[in-house]
Design a protein that fits this description.
Helix content is 1%, strand content 49%. The protein is an all-beta fold and 482 residues long. The chain has three domains: 184 residues, Jelly Rolls (Sandwich); 71 residues; 205 residues, Sandwich (Jelly Rolls). The strands form eight sheets. Strands 1, 3, 4, 5, 6, 8, 10, 11, 12, 13, 14 and 15 form a twelve-stranded antiparallel β-sheet that branches. Strands 23-37-29-34-35-36 form a six-stranded mixed β-sheet, with no helix packed on it. The relative contact order is 0.12.
Length: 482
């Protein structure tokens, strides 16, 4: 039969993944919550995490131990990294998969929690050994551990499956469990591998992450469909169904997936054009993604946001004002606002006891670069729009326009802000409420007449805000490379 044994210990203050993980290693969260680095030049054996539950992870930057590596991919080397990913909400967590074999292997998982109780279970997929179960628990502080598992199976077809879930957050919604890295040593068994073929109908492309032709059994692969101009993504077929984009599948057999793209109709409700770079309706009602109706495939991920049917029109998103947001990766269609841009959003405020309520922000993952920003409530309570049109990464007086009223609670507002290359305007429910622009007669606040026909880039965002936002990155983030 097979065997599993385990123990937990305090990790070393500094861990070199390349030295410990002689067979394979993996690390998450280096740049973003979706970052995944591993040992290069070998067959991958430690899978990327598979999500358990419904809440996507967040990036963390404050692990107790510091990690370094060399010979990695996609980041070749790092030193002193304290990054990882964390999961909130009871029942949520992650799964890792590692191929087992007849020769014993040693897997070390660097993980922890904050103000929570977590359960870790390791088992063989063929049931040939008793599962190993351990609990980590700290109701008031951080607890970080390395879990060492020694395992083998009677055949090379079995996998070791590790699941770590949050059982109790002790009444703190931010209580969490986390994952930093994992290392593997020993063993001579080659992982079972499967092929993934991505076909296309229409005009577009499919990107795989990781970008490989062969995958170890249990590997989670993310597929992203991107249409060309004038086309839109319609859905998946084959071994993946639905229209979520990006979408994920687990490699447990050879897979064939087809992405279908259709041409936009001139009479359609959401045609792709050179002017529309993103349109998020938030009508999905379930799941962890918000689809882009513009046709450019700028799909948003939902770390923590919840769905509601009580939108201005159809569905909407409800945000808790703490960490909830819609996060959209950078893409070629999300051009800089330094030239021209229009941003429009439906908003509904239920709490205005705090200023700085963000509607949409385009920035890098570290918040060091700011392209544009719309606030439903800034200092003094008025709405606000900023475009860093001179790209100096600073807030200049002529880069800001304010609305002239304070938004009330418990009603919908349609906010629209424009920048045409020289002048800025702020509209509330279709009425011009603020201007900022060049000198047109001796007054720097008088804006030269400009029509909407000159606006070359537009973003339409329909969203629902609940409670207050206390951070500047709560609502909708367009992420630029750091």
């Amino acid at each position: 039969g097979g065997s599993i044994s385990g123990q937990t210990a305090q990790p070393a203050a500094a861990v070199n993944l390349s030295s410990v993980g002689t067979t394979d290693w993996a690390q998450g969260g280096l740049a973003t919550a979706s970052s995944f680095n591993r040992k290069s030049g070998v067959t991958q054996q430690i899978s990327n995490y598979a999500l358990l539950g419904s809440t996507a992870p967040y990036r963390m930057t404050d692990s107790v131990a510091a990690f370094s590596w060399s010979g990695g991919t996609s980041t070749a080397s790092a030193s002193g990294s304290t990054t990882g990913i964390y999961f909130t909400g009871a029942g949520n967590g992650y799964r890792l998969t590692v191929p087992a074999g007849t020769t014993e292997k040693t897997l070390q998982i660097y993980l922890g929690l904050w103000r929570a109780r977590g359960k870790l279970e390791a088992k063989l997929s063929d049931g040939s050994a008793t599962s190993y179960v351990t609990y980590l628990d700290n109701s008031s502080d951080v607890l970080e551990r390395v879990v060492t598992l020694k395992f083998r199976a009677p055949s090379s077809s079995a996998n070791l499956i590790i699941e770590y879930t949050l059982e109790n957050n002790y009444g703190n919604s931010l209580g969490n469990i986390y994952l930093i890295a994992a290392t593997l040593a020993g063993g001579t068994t080659t992982a079972s591998q499967y092929s993934l073929t991505a076909n296309v109908v229409g005009s577009g492309s499919v990107a795989k992450n990781p970008n490989q032709t062969q995958f170890n059994s249990g590997t989670t692969v993310q597929l992203t469909a991107t249409p060309v101009s004038g086309w839109k993504f319609s859905g998946w077929s084959g071994n993946l169904v639905g229209n979520a984009n990006p979408a994920t599948l687990i490699m447990d057999s050879n897979k064939i997936v087809t992405a279908t793209f259709t041409q936009n109709s001139s009479g359609g409700s959401s045609p792709q054009s050179s002017d529309l770079m993103g349109h998020w309706k938030f009508d999905e009602g379930t799941g962890l993604v918000a689809s882009d109706a513009s046709g450019y495939g700028n799909t948003g991920m939902l770390p923590g946001a919840s769905w509601t049917a009580s939108g201005k029109k159809n569905g909407a998103l409800q945000l808790d004002g703490v960490y909830d947001r819609v996060q959209i990766p950078n893409s070629a269609s999300l051009a800089s606002a330094s030239s021209q841009i229009t941003v429009a959003a439906w908003v509904y405020l239920t709490d205005i006891s705090n200023d700085w309520i963000t509607v949409v922000e385009r920035t890098d993952s570290g918040g060091q670069f700011l392209d544009f920003l719309m606030l439903a409530r800034a200092a003094g309570g008025q709405p606000f729009f900023l475009v860093d049109w001179n790209q100096n990464n600073d807030i200049d007086e002529d880069e800001v326009v304010w609305g002239d009223i304070v938004l009330a609670t418990n009603r919908w507002y349609f906010l629209t802000a424009t920048y045409d290359g020289s002048a800025m305007r702020f509209y509330i429910d279709g009425t011009l409420r603020g201007t900022q622009g060049p000198d047109c007669g001796g007054d720097s606040d008088v804006v030269c007449p400009v029509t909407f026909s000159v606006i070359s880039k537009a973003a339409k965002i329909e969203r629902y805000l609940s409670k207050r936002n206390t951070r500047s990155d709560i609502s909708l983030i367009f992420t630029l490379p750091p």
